[in-house]
Amino acid sequence: MSSEQAARGVINLSESDSSLVNEIKELGGEELMECIQCAKCAAACPMVLAGFPFFNKRIIQAIFLGLRDALLDDSSIWACQSCNRCTEVCPREVNPFEIIQAMRRVAIREFALPTLSIEGLKSLYDTGHAVYLAGAGNTRVKVGLPEKPPSTVANPDALKELQAVIRKTALADLGIIPMDEPGV
Amino acid sequence: MPRIGVYICHCGENIAGAVNVEEVRKYAENLPGVVVARNYLFMCSDPGQELIKQDIRNGLIDRVVVAACTPRTHEPIFRKTVEDGGLNKYLLEMANIRDQDSWPHWHDKEGATEKAKKLVASAVAKAAFLEPLEDRFVEVTRASLVVGGGVAGMFAALDLANMGYKVYLVEKSPSLGGNMAKLDKTFPTNDCSACILTPIMVQVGTHPNIELLTYSEVESVEGSIGNFKVKVRKKQTYIDWDKCTGCGDCVNACPAKVPNEFNEGMDNRKAIYIEFPQAVPKRAVVDIEHCLSCAKRTIGTQPRIHSKTGEPILAPCEKACKTGACDRSREYNPEGEIVELNVGTIIVATGYKVMDKAPFKEYSPQSPNVITAMQLERILSATGPTEGHFHRPSDGEKPETIAFISCVGSRDKRYHTYCSKVCCMYMLKEARLIKEKYPETNIYIFFIDVRTGGKDFEEYYNYCRNLGIKMLRGRVGAVDELPGDRLRVRAYDVDLGAPVELEADLVVLATAIEPAPDLDELGRKLGITCGSEGFLKEMHTKLYPVETPVKGIYIAGCAQGPKDIPESVSQARAASSAAAVPLTLGKVIVEPLISEVNQRKCTGCGTCVQLCPYSAISLVEDKGRSRSKIDEAMCAGCGVCAAACPSGVITLHGFTNAQIHAQIKALAC
Amino acid sequence: MKVGFFVGCNTAFNRPDLEQAVRYAFPALGIELDNLEGQSCCPSWGTMPSVDVVGWCAVGARNHTIAEEKGLDIVTVCGSCYGSLAESKYKMDTHPEIKAQVNEILKDIGREYKGTSNVRLTFYYLYHELGPDKIKEAVKHKLDGLTVALQPGCHTLWPSKVYYDKEEDTFHPRVLKEMCEALGATVGHYTRLIDCCGMGAMRSTDMEKSFKLVEKKLISMKNEVNPDLIITGCSSCLIQLDTAQDLLRSSKKINFEIPVLHFMQVLALCLGADPERVTGLAKTDVSRVVNRILEG
């Protein structure tokens, strides 16, 4: 079922995937089942105002109903700014932001992630920065700063350390980005 | 050697669904002392009970173990069975293999069966040591105490008084009435709250069998069913109520201003005040904390004498009082007066409190135009701060657009997880009252689920929709303050599938019904507990809804949980009827499961005296030595003394050391 | 007084003038900055947090331990870094099992997360450690006569439970307002103050939709305050409000321009910083308002 169907057409509940709820709970969305779909999070969500087809409340309901494909076929989950206003207002302490993050974690395990996220992860691994602008050195010098900030980009040992940490995380098992051992 | 019969109940599927009953029966058969072990589909049914009786009558057994459900509901039944069979009824022991086994271990059938064996073995081990005991009877004081003078407390008191029993009614406010006195109209018939309540208040106030103790609180409770000794603290009113006529002259004279609780803080009352116009008793009280002590007339001092006139210099309230009720020379006594009452039964009907708006910062509670539904109730009431004129608080303008927000603090894990039950209906009622009077008003109700279960409630809801009140499904996420004291309500309309914004002149928060302040403390004094939601817990949700675990103490109204008026009144009348039973019988059975001290061996150390929570133990002189004495009528059988006695000379009947040790030993096998 | 400066990605590579502003203002107020050598990305929401809770916390914890070893709190100028670091800290501090798993990972690089350093946002840090009065005394230039509209930023407020510095009421924030008022500005209230600017993941996923939010926000500011300057509390909001106006004008969605600066840039100017260094990369024309500040 496509996201377009989810938005407009008939949703076939018989095709639902009942394992999705547990997967979300295991991937950080522990409080999922506390949600009573009151829609307070939606009332506070910038994604609703911007017009995304899925957002906190609707993502949670889709998870309840096991509509895995509808959520994976749509890019909405990647548009959440993590503003956490939903978390602040949620009367059920569901932490809707964390549910969306958990849904991203589900998506990543099915390689359903946007190119930009892959690039961000690769950049994080390669440079220590998710956002790294190679040409930024000149701008930095222009405002009187050293070419490189005092981060992993200026400190190869620190970068190696970070890479060693990342290689120990779940990201390493997923094989989304190449993570060669240094010197290999 | 005792001959024990073991009777294992299937409880339909309740037990047999998890426990292999036949396996447990076979196991029980081989336990020491057991001469017969049987199972049956429903042991509490007539044929089930007959099995036990026959075995007793046949001389087969002289001790009975029933492995079934909870003794809370079924022990009395099986005791009677044992007695009817011809044995002393205390030669019965129950093993709860349902609540403590099959239910919690439903998904582990093997484990549940093993646990059932252990529980049965433990009960059998204890049964071997059971002794026959005799019931005792105590005389009942034919009077009752009702705590709380709201609609529930008043009906409970009236019913008991009309049956001819003496009733003491304790109310912490100066007047009867409770929260209902604050309401404008009441659903589902829209009767004027004051019109239907005032006659009840007057009946209570004038009933010859009711002794009213307003402005009073329960201090302590001792004793047990039939004979409670209650200390009540009467707070000092600083006015001689015997002389006060409730004329209000002193109130008019008082210059102090204090936020008015009765009007939910929306206007001021005086430091000397009468709670509301229909107050019963209609008497003034002095709020001493806010009293300005005009003319240096501190309570308890003699007036200064005017140097020229030679007249005493009085405070304005005193000067205004024509009867001498207001006399500031009277003694300053902030502790008040302790009154001791003896009653046979107690009904607790302490009501509720509505939650404040302050915690809900996302709804801009700092705006005067964001109010609670109880505040709106006062705005709509003719005795309220606007005298019934529909004005918003910021500037007195009539609101053109109103938004109601439901479930504020209810169904909310940060505050109260329960549904407050009455909010859907009171929002509809308030909306309807406004819409009927001012049809041009735009009213929006933002809800999660409309819950209008109740006689005639759904009809009421539809009527409101027909009036043009707009219903939107979706909890409001934000209320922004706009220029001109207006408010922007932001929600997601679930049915439209769209974010919505509404500019409103008034926002009404349906804040939760909360337990009354200090309810848990009152519960502790009475020995009854509050549930996780903070309301008093009934004995059994379905079967004993007004009883508590303490015999002789009953609950009614919102002290037990959120309720509307019809339900509160029904429950109050049920409680009064339950509380009248012991009064009518004149005597009550006291189970012999109480402590006894072996005085000959008592060293008189006094440990038990200090520990007894019921003050049932005292030290008495006996042949020149000090020894403990336990008052049988006051002992509740808690066992604290028996456990603590350093000499081991206190026996708790029904739970003797030998019995408990045998039970533990069997469990450990 | 000394504190660790966590630069992050966007500030270091996109708006180094803001980094320079922090590096100027803190020492000028007598607070030494530590470079937290070897720091990495916080990590940002779309990376490790979207992969795995423990992985997120592990990368965050490496940054935390750099500050912990020096016994310093962390300050950041970026709302996202603030949020991600504070949240990873909160998760580890409240879930011992997460902390244990993270420390298992960190063991290999000889580090251990203890939870001894707090995560602070620049303007909250200055508010609580120095207070508006001391800042008022320290500045050379003031914002007298300037009307400003604020953008505190979502991450500076929510979820409040994870933050060390708290607003009394996160839906009616006061700290940035008080700080700007201490600099002499007239702070105008507009009713979409706490609405999201649309930056971050939303902008990278769908720029058009993201711009709906910033447009609404800018129009609310313009109509209700008509400010001389927008002051943000977050570097991401700075970038969005600063870069979106040109694009919104060319698509005829708005017909005005309001200069945008981060609070730390304004503070640096007031303390006497070189405007080219601390505001030189703004896309909106800030020259007039900068001159007014320097005259003030």
From TrEMBL, chain A:
Recorded GO CC terms: plasma membrane
Domain 4Fe-4S ferredoxin-type: 68-100
InterPro entries documented for this protein: 4Fe4S_Fe-S-bd, 4Fe4S_Fe_S_CS, HdrC_iron-sulfur_subunit, Helical_ferredxn
Keyword Iron: yes
Superkingdom of origin organism: Bacteria
Residue ranges crossing the lipid bilayer per the database entry: none
Keywords: 4Fe-4S, Iron, Iron-sulfur, Metal-binding, Oxidoreductase
UniProt-recorded Gene Ontology molecular function terms: 4 iron, 4 sulfur cluster binding; metal ion binding; oxidoreductase activity
SUPFAM superfamilies referenced in this protein's UniProt entry, alphabetically: alpha-helical ferredoxin
Keyword set includes Iron: yes
Name this polypeptide is given: CoB--CoM heterodisulfide reductase subunit C
Organism: Desulfofundulus thermosubterraneus DSM 16057
From TrEMBL, chain B:
Organism from which the protein derives: Desulfofundulus thermosubterraneus DSM 16057
Domain of life of the organism encoding this protein: Bacteria
Keywords from the UniProt entry: 4Fe-4S, FAD, Flavoprotein, Iron, Iron-sulfur, Metal-binding, Oxidoreductase
Domain 4Fe-4S ferredoxin-type, chain residue ranges per copy: 235-265, 593-622, 626-655
Protein name: Heterodisulfide reductase subunit A
Entries under Pfam families matching the protein: FAD_oxidored, Fer4_2, Fer4_7
InterPro entries attached to this UniProt entry: 4Fe4S_Fe-S-bd (IPR017896), 4Fe4S_Fe_S_CS (IPR017900), FAD/NAD-bd_sf (IPR036188), HdrA-like (IPR039650)
The organism's taxonomic lineage, starting at the top: Bacteria, Bacillati, Bacillota, Clostridia, Eubacteriales
Protein family according to the UniProt entry: Belongs to the HdrA family.
UniProtKB/TrEMBL annotation, chain C:
Keywords for the protein's UniProt record, in alphabetical order: Oxidoreductase
Coiled coil: none
GO molecular function terms listed in the Swiss-Prot or TrEMBL record: oxidoreductase activity
InterPro entries: Cys_rich_dom, HdrB/HdrD_reductase
Domain (Cysteine-rich): residue spans on this chain: 3-85, 148-242
Pfam family, one: CCG
The keyword DNA-binding is annotated on this UniProt entry: no
Highest taxon, organism lineage: Bacteria
Keyword Glycosyltransferase: no
Gene3D superfamilies: 1.20.1050.140
Stored PANTHER family: COB--COM HETERODISULFIDE REDUCTASE SUBUNIT B 1
Protein name per Swiss-Prot or TrEMBL: Heterodisulfide reductase subunit B
